[in-house]
Amino acid sequence: MEHQLSAIRAALGETAEFVFIPAPHATKSSYLSEFYEGMDWYEWLPRNSHSASEVNVLIAYAMQQLEQIRHVDVLLGFSQGAMVVELLDRLAQTSSIRRTWRLSVLCSVVALSSGWLPKSLAASTPHEVPSIHIFGTNEHKEVQTQLPECYAADKRVVIKHAAGHDLPRDAEFGRKVAKAIAAAMDG
């Protein structure tokens, strides 16, 4: 993710500190392996197990990581990581956990209701939190519609790009996202 976020990090400069939380399950490959040779890969849930007990372990792990960091203004997740961000937003909205962040940035992801996690965790009402949704215009329609619709329309910003299931690394894209983050933080 550090490489994928390089343009956004450069645009934010010293106004933001990025702390990366690795997913807890090592895996041998990823659909992105062809683009990033020699990297280690991780998943948020074991590849063939999305059971309720695994989800509870995931929630405990994510909350432990956030508690260690202490101060978090923005949660940013890509793909499975963005599903974790939505899960935490959902749990905070239902008062199952304490919300300790101000903004959620979700990149290239479908909604929890897509089947990645139990449907009982899907939002029944829109998440009433500020959010930014970033995705490629050539990604599956579900990526472009399902998740943004899970967040309140008056509190969400959608940013589209042409890089597919990835993040562009050009300066213009970085500035666009940085501007959206700054506006959401000021709002």
Automatic annotation (TrEMBL):
SUPFAM superfamilies: alpha/beta-Hydrolases (SSF53474)
Gene3D superfamilies, per database record: alpha/beta hydrolase
Keyword Hydrolase in annotation: yes
Residue stretches making up the Serine hydrolase domain: 2-175
InterPro entries assigned: AB_hydrolase_fold, FSH-like_dom, LovG
Top-rank taxon, per record: Eukaryota
Hydrolase in keyword set: yes
Keyword annotations: Hydrolase
Signal peptide annotation: none
PANTHER family the UniProt entry points to: ESTERASE OVCA2
Name of the protein in question: Serine hydrolase domain-containing protein
